[in-house]
Amino acid sequence: MRTLVAFYSLLLLSAHFHPLQMYETTSDIAETSYSVQPMHPHVDWLTLMTQLATLRDVEFIVTVTLGSLALLGNIVVLIVTAHYKSIGIAEVYMVGLAVCDLSIGVFSSWRAIADRVYTWSTGVFRFCALTYWPVVGLEVAASTTASLIAMALSIDRCLALKFPIKHSELCSVRKAKTLALASGLLSVIIGLNYPLRLSIQDGGITYLNVMPSKFTSLGEDPFFSKLCRYVEFFFRFAIPLSAMIVANTWTMAIIRISDQFRKGIDREARSAMKTPKCLTMTIGLVIIFIITQMPKAAFLFDQMIFYSEHRGTELFETFVIVGNLMTRFNSIVNIIVYLTLNKDFRRTLVKVLNACKTPDIEIFSHPTLSTTKGSENTGRHL
Fold first, then answer.
1. Confidence (pTM)
2. What does the similarity note say (predicted)?
3. Can you state the percent helix, strand and coil of the chain, rounding each to 5?
């Protein structure tokens, strides 16, 4: 434990004392969050890099903090969900989101740490170079999977509310698991474009403590790079966010009509009406997901249309950093929403915590063979 604390302390200190590297690079990597070659010749890059250095330090600290919280919070979600008496469709998607958010926390933290520690030694550099872009691809895959699962959850709850009988006939836990697994496999294929198109170069270090990258021979193909950006944008943002907005709006409209109808009936009929589980929680998750993903979606949309024309200004680079942090912040939101809006989750969590405390008490409270024999012998003597 002390070693872990010392390691994180050293990393946090490195955010302040690790010098900015100003080596020349051979190409601009538009897919990274920070350009390493000036786009506009009239921009004062030395001043811009100095201003962004402080913001980069803040981003590093926040990213590692959010990653640690995502790891802890989503492990709790997985443990609590495993103790549910029954697992429904909504719970399957909850587990899928927890796995994705946990992965995002781990992968984003490793990327931030690699950008800081790769200059420590040759061995560390080689390990970071070997894992850097594959980890970026896995982070993108986890984020894409989370978008697709959140879309599936939003549509499922909407259909369960609008068409309850057909939903119970057509939808099942098994189909939900299959859909979640298929989303993950598709997202991994999409994320593979990063290690295929980008690699770490031995000579040259970027301005902003980001590992020096270069395009591979496949990444230099403009058609393939453009295709990868379009595919990622549509499957990670355009399709899921559009579907979630429509399904969420439809769900809230149905709820409003249902509330007006309930006011006109008596209490007995009102109590007999059943609503789908996790409905309020789903709406909360979807709304927060849309808000936190919008800046990153705007950035990728800009990259699709204008490539890197807007890069190189302090305002735009700040917007990119804020968008990245909002995307990572979404990985810690789920447990907050569950604790706030899900009674079953709170009750199960309390039971799990109580179960962790009771074994020590039960050891002393249950009679043992020696104690029972001793009590019987004393009873005979009496």
1. 0.78
2. Belongs to the G-protein coupled receptor 1 family.
3. 75, 0, 20
